[in-house]
Design goal:
two-stranded antiparallel ribbon; 6% strand; 53% helix; 10 helices
Length: 278
């Protein structure tokens, strides 16, 4: 069950729910592969909290009852999930007055042992498909002020040299994009995907995140002018940028004209090879 209040973490403040077929996703917990159980939801959302720096290795987690209410799962499910994560080395259980459940200091080392390239690729492709669908549905109906927060994230990513901060800002961008185009329920669904990806694939290098941020800027420029097809291609180019294969050539057959966020006209090429990522 998706928590309609969207209370898990600072990225999930209540937002407007957009009508239409995509809103049905808010009632679905089925993801590619084996899907996601309640215990896996707890695990992925804690991983996303670490990525968002809401908690860091060594920090104490909220009590099981608080997490259960925030996630809309039973307290026993949360307790079992936390216990399993302690057994895996992701969390530490401490007793006594200052006790509780803490993110293990070795979190990143342990997560690296859990990477699964095949499942990560499936989830990443599904996330891209979700964003392409949201863009195709909402490109011509973005609220006038709906992109300002996303532009601020892009601008901050351009200025920061902190790799951890870059990863946090990118995650916030994709959560914000899901909310702007799909509403609070879609944001929660995107959080499920992003949390699992935090566990299944290595964090991208800073240079890769900066390359993807160019795609973020292009996407916002196209959404700002209601250009659906170039916006969808910007989403596809984002995934190629992760692997270093984004093609910004001068082939006129694949070039789309757009006005960037500073108001200047440019030409950006998104090769049709991006279509093969879906």
């Amino acid at each position: 069950m998706v928590n309609p209040g969207g209370k898990f973490g600072p990225y999930s403040q209540p937002g407007p729910t957009r009508p239409g077929p995509v809103a049905a996703v808010r009632d679905v917990r089925v993801l590619p592969g084996s899907g996601q159980t309640g215990a896996e939801l707890v695990r992925s959302r804690i991983a996303l909290r670490v990525r968002l720096t809401s908690v860091s290795p060594g920090d104490r987690l909220p009590d099981a009852g608080v997490l259960a209410e925030e996630l809309g799962v039973s307290e026993i499910t949360v307790r079992r999930a936390l216990e399993a994560m302690c057994q895996d080395g992701l969390l530490d259980r401490r007793r006594g007055r200052a006790g509780g459940t803490f993110v293990a200091p070795e979190w990143h080392t342990v997560v690296a042992l859990m990477h699964d390239a095949e499942e990560a690729a499936s989830l990443e492709a599904f996330h891209q498909l979700l964003e392409c669908g949201l863009v195709a549905r909402g490109a011509d109906d973005v609220p006038a002020d709906g992109l300002e927060g996303l532009r601020a994230l892009v601008d901050e990513m351009d200025l920061t040299d902190d790799p951890e901060r870059l990863l946090e800002l990118e995650a916030r961008f994709h959560l914000g994009l899901a909310e702007v185009l799909g509403g609070a329920g879609i944001r929660e669904f995107a959080a499920d995907l992003l949390g699992r990806l935090c566990l299944l694939m290595p964090a991208p290098a800073a240079d890769a995140v900066r390359a993807r941020n160019r795609c973020h800027a292009d996407l916002l420029a196209e959404l700002g002018r209601g250009a659906m097809d170039p916006a969808v291609r910007a989403v596809k180019a984002h995934r190629l940028a992760h692997t270093g294969h984004t093609d910004h050539t001068d082939h006129t057959d694949h070039t789309d004209h757009y006005s960037d966020r500073t108001g200047h006209s440019e030409h950006t090429d998104y090769s049709d090879h991006a279509d093969r990522t879906l």
